[in-house]
Design goal:
By secondary structure, the chain is α/β, with parallel strands linked by helices. The protein has a domain of about 200 residues: TIM Barrel (Alpha-Beta Barrel). It contains 11 helices and 7 strands. Strands 2, 3, 4, 6 and 7 form a 5-stranded parallel β-sheet that branches. Strand 2, helix 4 and strand 3 form a beta-alpha-beta unit. Bound molecules: zinc ion (ZN).
């Protein structure tokens, strides 16, 4: 039986297919264009960020086109965006590092810190000096001193000062196991809270002796950044009040942390001159946590300067 040419309309409908729309390229051309545009998009991803940023900033009057991601789930490029913020330990509302010797700030601020107290005679005298000048300080107290004068911690808090953790027994932490270190700091923490009702937010290691991984541990487990110092007048060697004062005054710089000990009478004797000179120089005294909140991010590295165009005119 021959081909049923010219047979019924049902057969005819099967043979006639709708014509492809004439508005776009033919299928084989469309797939070629698809490949080309995908390849172009991939190449675009690999151009240096400076070029890409320039291309992405439309000039006035230009239309900015935002393209969907190439692949579902592929994040948009992050060129030019800030790095992810530092982890924020519990209790902190600002990014915090695991250690500070000073902070980066353009403001003329310093934090003065008094270690190893409270002392029954020197500390109240110091608190009077601070109050007379409306200066706020930070006290790194030792648990074994707190137990003799817990009322002084309540006074410190009432007068706007800050209290930090300087351990119970003032032993060197760098020789301790992680468990012993945490137990020592937790015991001191509890003593401070019991004495004044306010939890310490930072710690200072006795003698400055601390290991890098211990700093990370304390921040993670206790929320304590480790507070070192930028100025150490070696007041515990008792060089005399005027020497202590001049070392502090000459060492002060914006964002600095000053280290002294309210355990020693000559140190407290050096404070009126230290305070009055620094105030006259325009310094503002802040607590350690206030200082941390003023820490400014590292400036972005200077972009490489393009080689200057030189015109060699042959002369
Ligand atoms: Zn100490």
């Amino acid at each position: 039986m021959g081909h049923p040419t010219g047979s019924g309309p049902a057969t005819l409908r099967l043979e006639i297919r709708p014509a492809p729309p004439e508005t776009g390229p033919r299928p084989e051309m469309r797939s070629l264009l698809c490949c080309l545009s995908a390849a172009f998009a991939l190449v675009s991803c690999q151009v240096p960020s400076s070029v890409s940023r320039r291309a992405a900033s439309p000039l006035p009057g230009e239309i900015k086109v935002s393209l969907p991601p190439l692949v579902a789930g592929l994040e948009a490029p992050t060129w030019g965006q800030a790095p992810p913020p530092a982890p924020q330990p519990e209790g902190w509302t600002v990014p915090v590092r695991d250690t500070y010797t000073q902070v980066r700030t353009s403001r003329k601020v310093v934090a003065i810190t008094f270690d190893d107290g409270p002392h029954g005679e020197n500390t109240p005298r110091l608190l009077d000096m601070l109050k007379a000048r409306n200066i706020k300080a930070t006290f790194y107290v030792v648990g074994n001193m707190v137990k003799y004068n817990p009322h002084l911690l309540a006074r410190m808090i009432a007068e706007g000062h800050e209290i930090g953790n300087h351990t119970v027994k003032h032993n060197m932490l760098d020789r301790m196991s992680d468990e012993a270190l945490l137990a020592e700091l937790r015991a001191a923490h509890d003593q401070i809270v019991e004495a004044c009702g306010v939890a310490p937010r930072t710690m200072r290691p006795p003698g400055g002796a601390i290991k890098k991984d211990q700093k990370a541990l304390m921040l993670r487990e206790l929320g304590y950044p480790t507070i070192m110092w930028s100025v150490d007048p070696l007041d515990w060697k008792r060089p005399g009040p005027s020497v202590v004062a001049s070392r502090l005054i000459n060492g002060a710089a914006p964002g600095g942390i000053l280290l002294v000990h309210d355990l020693h009478k000559p140190t407290v004797d050096a404070m009126p001159e230290t305070f009055d000179r620094l105030l006259a120089m325009g310094y503002e005294f802040v607590t350690v946590t206030e200082l941390i909140a003023l820490d400014e991010p590292e400036p972005e590295p200077e972009p490489k300067k393009e080689e200057a165009e030189t015109v060699d005119d042959g002369q």
